[in-house]
Amino acid sequence: MSIDSWIRQATGEAAKAAERVRQAEAALKQKAGGLEKQVNGQALKAAQWIGTAAGHIDRAGKLAASASAAWNHVLPAAEAAAVKRGTGVLSAAADRFAASGIAAIKDAGERLQASVAGLGRKLGVFGTAGQPATPAAVAEVKPSSQLTPAVPRLAGATEATRHLLVLMPPAGDGFYFGLSATAFDLLRRQTAFGIDSVPRLGRPDAAQAVGQGSETLTLSGAVYLSHRMTLGKGNAGADELALLRKLGLALKPLQLSTGSGELLGRWYMTSLTEERSYLIAGGHARKQTYTLEFKRYGDDYQKL
Predict the structure, then answer these.
(1) What's the structural domain count of the chain?
(2) What is the pLDDT of residues 16-32, one digit of tens each?
(3) Residues 6 or more apart in contact with residue 246 via CB below 8 angstroms
(4) Which domain holds residue 212?
């Protein structure tokens, strides 16, 4: 496994941990002032989520330590840049966990900080191909939000990046939407609340709450392949949609996070619609539009 892959998996574990910590903190807040049965239930949920979050943080630390141990040569420029970004994300996440008021999360966050520090030292020793880094230039790994104010980070978010949206599966490589790679034009999020109506004889229907409902997320955009070919990127749009289709066919929930660092939770990809128009010789399309639909996965994670 490459160093970049280890760090990508580590950032995925950190994102999962952040979601569990958020749920645990919400459960602990709801515990105050509730009935005894509700208090016990919230405390049990919080304990389960805290344990799960600590496990994800420790796995992220082990992956970071493995990447650091294997890093013994100068990386190619593209891989080194990705490693540096991933290390920054892990550093910001470790700092947030270490500042938690929950003891187990705080301890796990401090262990992650130690692992990320090892990556920071390697950044000071090995640079990119043809551009060796100096220890002074990378002595401290900083979140990208501190390097440039152009990408604001949300309060409590893990880290701000240049991506529009990131899809991260439970294992393996994720998919990154960016301005230069399958950028979408529209993001539509619909929340349906679980309100149903019960017919009553001779009277209006009685509305009642039957559940928390469901959420759907829709992305739509267009890729102009002739323009991408002019830039030397080949049939990039078709290849990117093939990767998205592969993620959907895996039938696994995906962790979604925005470029501003907001964690949207886990979602199933339910459909991918692709349209090709303005065809040229060979059946290639000059314009390719797509629509992606996601359905929210339950927050209990009982099947994982």
Answers:
(1) 2
(2) 888 888 888 887 777 55
(3) none
(4) 186-296
Q: List the CATH number of the domain containing 270.
A: 2.40.30
Contact 256, 165 (CB under 8 A): yes
Residue type, 79: E
- Whether residue 267 is contained in a domain is answered as yes
Task: Compute the distance between CA of residue 8 and CA of residue 219 in angstroms, rounded to an integer.
Answer: 24
Task: Give the pTM.
Answer: 0.47
Domain membership of residue 179 (yes or no) is no
Full 3-state SS string of 133-171:
CCCCCCCCCCCHHHHCCCCCCCCCCCCCCCCCEEEECCC
**Cα(first)–Cα(last) distance of the chain, in Å?**
24
pLDDT in tens, 157-200: 444 456 788 888 888 888 888 776 677 888 899 998 888 888 99
Q: Which amino acid is at 67?
A: A
Please check whether residues 192 and 144 belong to one and the same domain: no
H/E run at residue 255: strand 254-258
- Residue 57, in any domain of the structure: yes
Contact 205, 198 (CB under 8 A): yes
